[in-house]
Amino acid sequence: MAGPTHHALARPEFDEGPKILIVVAPYYKDIADGLVAGAMAEIEAVGGSYEVVEMPGALELPSAIGIAARMGEYDGFVALGCVIRGETTHYDTVCNDSSRGLTLLGLQGLCIGNGILTVENYDQAAVRADPQGQNKGGGAAAAALHLVALSRKLKQQGKSKGLGFTADRLGEG
């Protein structure tokens, strides 16, 4: 029996390939390697470049992205890792706090694709991480690339049309 399908957006196009930082927690090394392979392929497919850095765990991924963003060298970020449910509530803490951290950074304007797998068991993670399977690493990279494309588009429109967000446009003036 076939499962549900989902719609995937076409890859964004870039005049200048974006520079992406892939931040990965290789706690489950083979899962992380699959996620990274999928992300690298997606970034390469749009003519982008990337660097990969490793962090000890999923909780450190938002902090690492925040630090890198302050350096201003990257157009976007991909957070990759895997959290498998265990016997304690630590799973909930790691899942919720890593996701919340990435969301807060995104709301500040960073272009982030969240590829932190949150699964019940190793087999679920393996299927999701496989670049020839569900390719969640590639999906996270695609999300970051779409956000970079949107950011560039809006920035260019603002320059060419004078569309800045000023106090009067926000209802404060």
UniProtKB/TrEMBL annotation:
List positions binding (2S)-2-hydroxy-3-oxobutyl phosphate: E87, T88, R128
Under which EC number(s) is this enzyme classified? Answer: 2.5.1.78
Q: Where is the active site?
A: H90 (proton donor)
Q: Where are the transmembrane segments?
A: none
| Pathway membership, UniProt | Cofactor biosynthesis; riboflavin biosynthesis; riboflavin from 2-hydroxy-3-oxobutyl phosphate and 5-amino-6-(D-ribitylamino)uracil: step 1/2
Protein family per UniProt: Belongs to the DMRL synthase family.
Q: Name one GO biological process term.
A: riboflavin biosynthetic process
Query: What is the role of the protein in this entry?
Result: Catalyzes the formation of 6,7-dimethyl-8-ribityllumazine by condensation of 5-amino-6-(D-ribitylamino)uracil with 3,4-dihydroxy-2-butanone 4-phosphate. This is the penultimate step in the biosynthesis of riboflavin.
One GO cellular component, as annotated: cytosol
Is Transferase one of the keywords?
yes
One MF term in GO for this entry? 6,7-dimethyl-8-ribityllumazine synthase activity
SUPFAM superfamilies in UniProt:
Lumazine synthase (SSF52121)
Q: Does the keyword Transferase apply?
A: yes
Q: Which organism is it from?
A: Limimaricola cinnabarinus
Gene from which the chain derives: ribH
Arranged from A to Z, the UniProt key words for this protein are: Riboflavin biosynthesis, Transferase
Report the domain of life of the source organism: Bacteria
Q: What is this protein called?
A: 6,7-dimethyl-8-ribityllumazine synthase
Q: What class of enzyme is it?
A: transferase
Q: Pfam families this protein is in?
A: DMRL_synthase
- Report which reactions are catalysed by this protein: (2S)-2-hydroxy-3-oxobutyl phosphate + 5-amino-6-(D-ribitylamino)uracil = 6,7-dimethyl-8-(1-D-ribityl)lumazine + phosphate + 2 H2O + H(+)
Binding positions for 5-amino-6-(D-ribitylamino)uracil per the UniProt entry: Y27, A58, L59, E60, C82, V83, I84, N114
